[in-house]
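Reopening this one. Same input as before:
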Amino acid sequence: MKVITNDQINCDKALGPLYQVYDPEIGLNVVDLGLIYQIDFLDDENGVEATMTLTTQFCPMGESIRNNVARSLSNTFAGFRITVNLVFNPPWNAARISERGRQFLNR
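Same output, byte for byte:
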């Protein structure tokens, strides 16, 4: 799935390291899993705002995954204010998994 953004160049810069953030229960990164919905860049606030979800609201690793996304964005955009919003609407579903992710999962 395509990530919504207001700045494609910086979004691509953000997504690169996010391919190294994994859902440890599934073993697939958050980008290919389709957990990242949106990444916006707030020039007037020197901020990055990411909106993401989890495969389930009750994911036991949810806080860890969210923190790893925030850490990755902080490392990539040093000095920026990082906000990671966790949402469940729209709910995640397997259709959000990328082709590469499907191959990894043998779907």
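So the earlier flakiness isn't reproducible anymore. For the record, The first strand starts at residue 4 and ends at 5.
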